[in-house]
Amino acid sequence: MVNIINQTPLHLAAANGHLSVVEYLVNQRVEINAKDKDDWTPLHYAAEKGHLSVVEYLVNRRVEINAKDKDDRTPLHYAAANGHLSVVEYLVNQKADINAKDKDDWTPLHLAAEKGHLCIVEYLVNRRAEINAKDKDDRAPLHYAANNGHLSIVEYLLHQGAGFRYGINGQSYLHFAAANGHLRVVEYLINQKADINAKNNDYCTPLHLSAEKGHLSVVEYLVNQKADINAKSQWVDFLYLVRLLFILLQQMVILVLLNI
Question: How many domains does the chain have?
């Protein structure tokens, strides 16, 4: 029996951490890997909510530990995203795929870094998670830590050997931090020899992006650190070209009118 979103009673018991109910239902031979409308199994729910005892019981009953939902996320993805270290540790010890990728090629490490869960980032890296794993936008976990201002994770990942790299549109870690106004991350990256005048595919530097977003403290810092204050983006050149074409068209119209 399922509800309107295709959840079984086992899904709901697992989601709410009711171990005795989970044990009873499994002993009644319910489908232990049943999927709801989003392809979540009971293990997804238990891992996402951090119910370790339920997770342990389900795994011991041979549940599919790497089951994927409609977004190709495993229970480990959700445990990492929500900061449940004990569940992450247990799933990894039980051979969950530590580098599993969802439909956007995000690994559990991407999610932990994006959400700011340092203890989980440290654990996953220590267990040989791919520190420079790329998603579909060519972004590594460090991109998301910088983008969200998680300085401790930025420091840790760089110390563990994460390389300076560029994501979609040629954006560096410094671009992401500057665009979102994360001054402390910007300061740290500059101290780590990040290229202060790095240009993305639109020729925008970190100074362009921080100025565009109105982050005065970041702008002031970058200028004080000798960022090129006169750097021009491709967008500026494009606007100049548009204006030039408009002037030429005006002149052509005038010439045509004069010849009529």
Answer: 1
How far out from the chain centre does Cα 91 lie? 21
> Could you tell me the CATH number of the domain that includes residue 208?
1.25.40.20
Instruction: Say how far apart CA 226 and CA 247 lie, in whole Å.
Output: 36
Residue 172 β-bridge partners: 166
Round to whole Å and give the CA distance between 252 and 258: 10
**C-alpha to C-alpha distance for 105 and 138, rounded to whole angstroms:** 9
- Range scoring the smallest mean pLDDT among 40-44, 127-131, 153-157, 209-213: 209-213
Domain that holds residue 257: 166-260
Residue 95 lies in a domain: no
Residue 101 has pLDDT above 80, yes or no: yes
Q: Whose structure tokens read 């530990």?
A: 65
What is the average pLDDT score of the chain?
91
174 in any annotated domain: yes
**CA–CA distance, 147 with 173 (Å, rounded to integer):** 7
Distance CA 9, CA 20 (A): 13
